[in-house]
Amino acid sequence: MATNGDKSRAEIYWQRNLRILFALLAVWAAVSFGAGILWVDWLNQFTLPFSGFKLGFWFAQQGSMYTFVALIFIYTRLMSRLDREFGVDEG
Amino acid sequence: MDVQNWTFLIVGGTFALYIAIALRSRAGSTGEFYVAGGGVHPVVNGMATGADWMSAASFISMAGLISFMGYDGSVYLMGWTGGYVLLALLLAPYLRKFGKFTVPDFVGDRYYSNTARVVAVVCAVFVSFTYVAGQMRGVGVVFSRFLEVDINTGVLIGMGIVFFYAVLGGMKGITYTQAAQYCVLIFAFMVPAIFISILLTDNPIPQLGFGGSLGGEIGTRIAGGESVTLLDKLDGLHKELGFDAYTAAKRPMIDIMCITGALMVGTAGLPHVIVRFYTVPKVRDARISAGWALLFIAILYTTAPAVAAFARTNLIDSVSGAHYAQADGEKSVPQWFKTWEDTGLLAWVDKNHDGKIQYLPGKAVDGKPQFLNAGDGTPARGEHGERLIGNPTEGIPNELYVDRDIMVLANPEIADLPAWVIALVAAGALAAALSTAAGLLLVVSAAISHDLLKRVIVPSISEKQELLAARISAALAIGVAGYFGINPPGFVAQVVAFAFGLAASTFFPAIILGVFVKRANREGVILGMLSGLIFTASYIVYFKFMGGTPDQYWFGISPEGIGSIGMLVNFVVAFLVSFTTAPPPDEVQEMVENIRIPAGSGQPTAGH
């Protein structure tokens, strides 16, 4: 990544990386601060299908955590693909 | 075989296992001592991170805490897991690419300043000692409760075990023992949880039983013939007794937001967690390893709220309105009630002299119960046979004191499980406490031998000398931690909030800016860390030690949540100062560009 030609490619790689981060962190915030806290009362009028959970309460004590786990594995996949595309993976 | 013998057998067996692992993985270089040579498989590292992270408090206290807080307990669940998303996306891959040994290493190199390095060392040591004192105490408490040895003897045994594998094996020894400890603790947590779930909901998966209908042996009795979900029943019981609904919020929303945020960001900024991601071979491994870590953690963290709700329902149902003494044909307390009363974790004061337990909102006793003794030194008993206490809270009708730890510790007895399960819980709690203590002690040791000695005071020492220094500082750190375990400072509970607030308002912004904002410079980040630190520390000290009262909270934000605001203060100051002073030197800017790209990650190096 020393020459100028490479540099712009490095910048594009970084922009794509940031885009992935923003998208995933938006979901991260939506399930925790959003569904688990901010909208919890409104969501509690619904029930999670096939269970006795109030929906907001479920997000706060179960759903947010399942989503977090999924987010990290999705991130890993997206980044591996991006690394390969830009030839910066570790082989 | 009785509980005592089972406990000796299982605890002894697990300890022998940890020692055997330690003997097989001795560290021969500083690289092995600090970061296990950077060759740990990502799944193993995930397990080790799980054990590193889940402390005695997660294992013993968290479910109980949630049990008493209801919905508000979600702050711990979301806070202590959500931080791993930040860790995986924003920190771990870049720090792994940076490829040094410690967090102060990164702060010192990225901000080309030994002042920044020393500030980071002080924060790392403070955060780690805050935490480790509680772990050592936890080891002592488990020993005394399950094996009837003195608490102090228990602390000494714990110190001996940790000494063995931390001083000999460093990070290499710790990593593989932590992976074993994860297996022990998760098994020990899940077995009673599954049994309780079957008893209350007839569903072997606690996460599903949590949202299911009452059923099974105990659940059917509680439901009393109607078909009702566990959570609806629990909300109903709460309402009957005058508590707030279990599933409803009690704290102000802004406070819940701030506490969750501070715990998330604090988790991502804790040095003993971050350093685990230096131990895997590649950047890609650091990413996936965070995923495995969170998966392993989430198994316990999604079970804990289910256990909390089961235990709460069962507790209210079996004690509320029950006779303390056996009364024919009427509800009386179960046997475990008296067992745990003997340990001092339960107490009952018959305020209205009806011989029945009234469990209502409000304090039953002032602080912890003080049990009275009769003239001959045995516990004094009241007219129904209950232990008498000297400090009941007058004017509040609630008669029952319940220590939150009981929710996990008493589960096997409540569910009438065999003796080996009780022994397993003891081994699990010890695994949780020891693994966290070892991880923290290694941070302290590396901060002293590497960050202070090698990088600042005497850069000329050889690797062999540094390794010796690392072993000596690990041994000293164990001594100090043991001292705090035997003589716990009264403020331990308060300073845990401090550890998270501190990590959130210092390390996290410094590392994020270091990776994502090339323009962030030495002046900006040092001032940012100091203002975040001073702001957060002043708020916590004022409310925790100088008599501040909740009605003085800014916008209703409690000291537990103020780290979120401290983090913002840090970010704002660092931005303003960075952009009005000279940019970082070219080689630092190049370093930032380099850590943003995975290719070329090598073995961790000592940095000179």
Brief summary:
The complex is a heterodimer of chains A (91) and B (608). Chain A is mainly alpha-helical and 91 residues long. Chain A is built from three helices and no strands.
What attributes characterize this protein structure?
heterodimer, A: 91 residues, elongated, B: 608 residues, mainly alpha, 24 helices
Please specify the SSE layout and strand pairing.
The complex is a heterodimer of chains A (91) and B (608).
Chain A: H1 4-38, H2 40-43, H3 55-85
Chain B: H1 3-24, H2 30-35, H3 42-53, H4 56-69, H5 74-98, H6 103-110, H7 114-147, H8 151-201, H9 206-209, H10 216-223, H11 230-241, H12 253-268, H13 271-274, H14 283-319, H15 335-342, E1 346-348, E2 400-402, H16 406-409, H17 411-414, H18 419-457, H19 463-486, H20 492-505, H21 507-516, H22 522-545, H23 562-580, H24 586-595
Number of helical runs of chain B? 24
Low-confidence spans of chain A = none
- Note the gap between the termini of chain B: 58 Å
Helix content of chain A: over 70%
Helix share of residues of chain B? 55-70%
> For the residues shown, what is the average pLDDT of chain B?
86
Distance between the termini of chain A: 17 Å
Rg of chain A, alpha carbons: 19 Å
- Morphology of chain B: globular
* CA-atom Rg of chain B in angstroms: 25 Å
Oligomer: heterodimer
* Secondary-structure class of chain A: mainly alpha
* Proportion of residues in extended strands of chain A: under 5%
**Spans where pLDDT lies below 50 across 5 or more residues of chain B:** none
Q: Beta fraction of the residues of chain B?
A: under 5%
Major β-sheet profile of chain A: none
The side-by-side strand order for the widest beta sheet of chain B comes to 1-2
For the largest beta-sheet of chain B, the strand count, sense and barrel status come to: 2 strands, antiparallel
